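Collaborator request, handled under Task 6.
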Amino acid sequence: CQVYMGLKEGESFPEIGDLIFTSDEPNFSSAELKAFGTRSRTFSIYYPSIRPESKTPRYTIVASTIALWKDWENLSEEAYNNAKEALKTQTLQSLNHFIPNIEEKLGWIEVATPKTFNRYTQHLEGASFGTKFEGLKVSMELPDHVSGLYHSGSVGIIMSGWLGTINYGIITTDKVD
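Structure tokens returned to the collaborator:
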């Protein structure tokens, strides 16, 4: 699941890091990380300095939690909406540890679940980040089939998203060289 947050124009907060892994759970538990209602999440923080050319530079935050399709797929509409609201509330409570009174600064907040990803991307069971290891071989062999065609995005190696993209970009650059 992901909770997308955008600050109102003119709102800000001090730099607290770009990527924050946090948990309100007292002890580490792999089972808790993927539990429905997990208290563990990652905050990706995007500062205006990332896009200095923007006419309206704003702060944005994406909170990510691990979610299982089976926990979301059969919820009634009411239960689904309640679960999304609970996820939003828990995310804001957690983020308040790092940015006090964050709710007052927000101009936008939206919750995406595996059902959201499935609806808009048609990804199997609402997967939000493509493939895992099976995608690496296909991607690495692209230039063997189409001369000069290289893939340098994330395929789930090491970590999806920006870190996977950077790492995969390094692998691809080395291959091009």
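The cover message to the collaborator said: "Helices lie at 30-33, 69-72, 77-95, 102-105, 114-121, 133-140, 142-145, 162-176. The two ends are 38 Å apart (CA to CA). Please let us know whether this matches your experimental observations."
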